# Entry
Amino acid sequence: MDEKIKPILEKQHYHLVGEHSGVKLCHWLGEKLLRGRPCYKEAFYGIESHRCLQMSPAVNNCTQSCLFCWRYQGLGEMEIEKEDDPEFILQEAIEGQKKLITGYKGDDRCKPEMWKEAQEPNMVAISLSGEPTMYDNLGGFIEACHKRGMTTFLVTNGTLPEALENLDPLPRQLYVTVAAPNEDVYNKLCVPLLKDGWQNLNRTLELLPSLDTRTVIRHTLVDGWNLGWEREYAKLIEKANPLFIEPKGYVFVGYSRERMHNSNMPSQEKVQRFARSICEETGYEILAEQKASRVVLLGNDRMKMKLGER
# Structure
């Protein structure tokens, strides 16, 4: 990792691991510990928010420079020159999370038993920043997680289909972000840093039905940019045939405030309207929603929502 980036990330409360990885506490982990409010992933899929490890094995490496991204995008690196061992990354990420949550122990709002549980994360959200599939040994990292009995969620922008095609083992749940209905919007909003980004994303969508794991299409909705076009989105969804679809509203936070405006943050009503239109176009149904996160869950089988049910 470029030495210039480290103090910037550390100031933002990242715990950096090795040459290219990092951990950062999710807002919802704190909400669960202090107020009992869970992340929508707990409500939808049954994971425990206070036991979730939010991390990335490619914290400063990405193939896009999305305008809506809340992460720091300066000095972005297009390759990982020296890769760390996956077992090392996982162990150090867990230790880093333990250090980051130390302060909650002394808060009267935090139940001691819940804080103790948080010391032993059982869920890994490989989604913090960067593009995780740029780490060549991502399969080894996922395997290390599974050996410890940890659930894995992987979020990718889909621009490296070869990495997903060769990924072994697969995560327990695979998210692909589809933040544009067509190539024109994609180029303007997602700002690909490699050629054929849109074509690669479509190859990933075509690959999804063949992957033996739970799949989710994530639509990050930015008002004034990518809302509407439901028929075009539906064609992309048809290619992917995901188990679930998550329309989720963009939130005006972090570094995205340098590129976006508060008006770009859609209301829950707009997210709901988009979700209903997608249902009409695809035959999916609304299964759940969480207003606090401005997200709606679409699917065809409510019984498959919770992990452990296929």
